[in-house]
Amino acid sequence: MGCQRNEKLRQEIVFIRETRPCATLEQIAHDVARTRQRVHKILKGEGKPTCHVKPVKPKHTCLACGTLFQHDGYFCSPLCRQSYYRIPIVCDNCGVLCYILLSYLLYHVTRGQESFCCSTPCRREYWKKHYASRMRSCRKGAGGPEVAPAIPGSH
Ligand SMILES: [Zn+2]
Ligand SMILES: [Zn+2]
Q1: Ligand 2 centre and the CA of 126: distance in Å?
Q2: 98 alpha carbon – ligand 2 mean position (Å)
Q3: Among 24, 66, 104, 133, which residue's beta carbon has the most beta carbons within 10 A?
Q4: Residues 118, 98: contact at Cβ < 8 Å?
């Protein structure tokens, strides 16, 4: 008979654990009017988790995709961060729509650059064309360091 009562208790504890994963051992113990140790032992014997699941509270919303996530920051993944910071531009050389990093854009805009290209070959071509005409017109000058324009990102 005592055995049957144990069985009922066991089922009850397992039932609580399965339906309320966030309940602590203390809460379960209180509900079945047994000790915490008893509940722990029964759960362990049943192969059920003895630790309660902590309620998950999402902390942030990803700026790129809107997913809620736990860790610190503004993006749920490095991929989202990357895609968020890609800005659509039109290539000044070939006119193709492409994407560049916001950080790249800001870096060059703050240094006075107004033109952006889709690729390194395009950029080289653009700067060659751009500076070839400029160099010809101011060649008569003192011939300062201006003669060799820096190609961004070419180093
Ligand atoms: Zn995301
Ligand atoms: Zn281009």
Answers
A1: 8
A2: 8
A3: 104
A4: yes
CA torsion through residues 96, 97, 100, 105, sign: positive
pLDDT in tens, 102-119: 878 888 889 988 888 888
**60-61 vs 97-101, strand pairing mode:** unpaired
Instruction: Compute the distance from residue 25 Cα to the ligand 1 centre, in Å.
Output: 36
Ligand 1 center to residue 123 CA distance, Å? 31
Rounded CA separation 59/128 (Å):
49
- Give first-to-last CA distance, the chain, whole Å: 84
79 alpha carbon – ligand 1 mean position (Å): 7
Instruction: Tell me the per-residue pLDDT of 41-85, one tens digit each, with 9 for 90 and over.
Output: 999 999 998 888 877 676 889 988 888 888 888 999 988 887 887
Three-state secondary structure call for residue 117 = coil
Q: What is the pLDDT of residues 23-34, one digit of tens each?
A: 999 999 999 999
Q: How many CB atoms lie within 10 A of CB 129?
A: 12
SS3 1: coil
Look-up of token digits 């208790």: 9
45 Cα to the center of ligand 2, angstroms: 67
